[in-house]
Amino acid sequence: MSKKQRSTKQKQSQSLYYTVKEPTKLLPFLLEVMSNRSRNSVKSILSRGQVTIDDQIETQFDYLLHPGQTVAILKNKAAVKRSALIGMEILHEDDDIIVINKEAGLLSIATEKEKHQTAHHQLMEHVRHEGPQNRVFVVHRLDKDTSGVMMFAKNETAKRTLQNAWREKVAERTYVALVEGEVKKEKGYISSWLRESKTHLMYSSTTPNDGLHAITHYEKLQGNKDYSLLKVELETGRKNQIRVHMLDLGFPVVGDKKYGSKTNKVRRLGLHAMVLAFEHPSTGEKLRFETEIPQIFLGVSK
């Protein structure tokens, strides 16, 4: 059995899995399958982020479930054992960096509404188990509803080294994007200048130097008449770059209402950071981390 298979098997043994049979709201469903627990206990499990739906964290008690969805509940003992690392898995950790695989639905950093249920806050708690003075620093971000590989620094020197030479240090940033429509072209790229509106909406300008230059390469992996699965490589890393460029191509990312999506069959954003390869900020070692394509992306785009 491979290391990945052992990890998957261990992860599965730490959770309880249930298949939704009929439309219902999440809290009543949980109360039914966990009938031995009190209502407050179930609500607590939900609020701590121990519930995922088709591999996406969900904390809203009134979330509407649909037949065929899989609800997974992380057991309390497993949650404690993992030091409350909910919604992510540590792929690599050393004295300078932590690399994680983040699930869709988990914030990278705090917002005004949510301070604690974030990747950054949880990792801060994680490193402080070894020393109260330890800290974690944000190097880059993934949107809340984007899953995949993400890196944090464990000291300011590593943070500055990575951020000041990001384009030189990062050798590969590959995403998979589930988009609406049938993409006919097997591969291509899009180049534009990105600007941000007063309402914080990013948009493309074809006028040279009118904004930040962004280049996105794509290759079709599979698809049907309704959906296409693309491998997307970033030559530049601008805010919402993939989402804007997919809209520009006429194939918005599934579930991305902000940038033109009309459907959401996967009930999440159809974007996953699959590969991150970079030069270690201290040792110079070439590191590469790759995660699996979400199964629901593969199923919808067959």
CATH topology annotation of the largest domain: Pseudouridine synthase
CATH architecture of the largest domain: 2-Layer Sandwich
Number of strands: 17
- Helix and strand pattern: HEEHHEEEEHEEHEEHHEEEEEHEEH
Number of helices, where a helix is a run of at least 4 consecutive DSSP H or I residues: 9
General shape:
globular
Number of domains: 3
The CATH superfamily of the largest domain is Pseudouridine synthase
User: Beta-strand percentage?
Assistant: 25-35%
Largest sheet: 11 strands, mixed
> What is the first-to-last residue Cα distance?
28 Å
Low-pLDDT regions: 3-10
Query: Would you tell me the overall average pLDDT?
Result: 89
In the CATH scheme, the class of the largest domain would be: Alpha Beta
The Cα radius of gyration reads 20 Å
Which class best fits the helix and strand makeup?
Answer: alpha+beta
